[in-house]
């Protein structure tokens, strides 16, 4: 029950989907969780239900990271974990991706993960270490035609993670950094994708549970359990890895 007892953990994009499931699972295992999101209403409401703290943050704003880490230091005096989870997934191929769309995706995924890791490491160093998880995707490992910018950003997150893991080890920081690569998981992001790509959200139709299983789509808790493991000391020898959670999609 106490796999992450008293660890102070920040999760971005935690008002919905995977971030919300991560927050719930970590609080259930004894963590002190700070949930951040641009969606203040949902974020505050879920944080108060779960027993977490909410901080309004747009991850693509560099200044927000200093404000967040300042608040965490003031409230808890330390940081043990960061899950860089916030994301958007616009559907556009190489032929129809606009420059604005490209920059927005890079900013929310790549810039934010860079700022998040950099600011977290400063605080984690003060208490001797910590664990960072960067949310990537199977889009970083295989070709997804309709997700040009998203795939490029998730590939960058995968490589950035490994660089941070190697540096942290060589510098003796006591900080681990891993990427997580889910396949399709039933969250609002995937409901929107189904509507756009198939013309209908099959998961919202009759017997969604049966449809979800038939389509090989996972549940948010499938990812949250991996996050608990990576945030806990059970994974103390695990860094620089890419944890794939896709029911075998990428090996078929
Ligand atoms: N659901 C999947 O199948 C799947 C698969 C692979 C990877 N992922 C990744 O997992 C992460 C979570 O996705 P999800 O499926 O839970 O999506 P979701 O849409 O349910 O949740 C994303 C959350 O991020 C927040 N967000 C968006 N832009 C933000 C910003 N600028 N600043 C702060 N918060 C912001 C949203 O408000 C929302 O609460 C994303 O990085 C996504 O790319 C999801």
Feature tags:
7-stranded parallel β-sheet, 252 residues, binds nicotinamide-adenine-dinucleotide, globular, 8 helices, single chain, Rossmann fold, alpha/beta, 2 domains
Task: Map the helices and strands.
Layout: E1 8-12, H1 17-28, E2 32-37, H2 40-50, E3 53-56, H3 62-76, E4 81-84, H4 99-126, E5 130-135, H5 148-170, E6 175-182, H6 188-198, H7 208-214, H8 220-231, E7 242-245
Parallel strand pairs: 1-2, 1-4, 2-3, 4-5, 5-6, 6-7
Helix pairs in contact: 1-8, 3-4, 4-5
The structure holds nicotinamide-adenine-dinucleotide.
The site of nicotinamide-adenine-dinucleotide (NAD) has 29 residues, from helix 1 and helix 6.
Architecture overview:
The structure is a single chain. The chain is an alpha/beta fold and 252 residues long. It has two domains: 8-183 and 220-245, Rossmann fold (3-Layer(aba) Sandwich), CATH 3.40.50; 187-217, no CATH class. 47% of the residues lie in helices and 15% in strands. It has helices spanning 17-28, 40-50, 62-76, 99-126, 148-170, 188-198, 208-214, 220-231; strands at residues 8-12, 32-37, 53-56, 81-84, 130-135, 175-182, 242-245. A seven-stranded parallel sheet has the order 3-2-1-4-5-6-7, sandwiched between helices. Helix 3 runs parallel beside helix 4 (99-126). Nicotinamide-adenine-dinucleotide binds at residues 12-13, 15-19, 37-39, 57-60, 85-89, 108, 135, 137, 182, 184-185, 187-190.
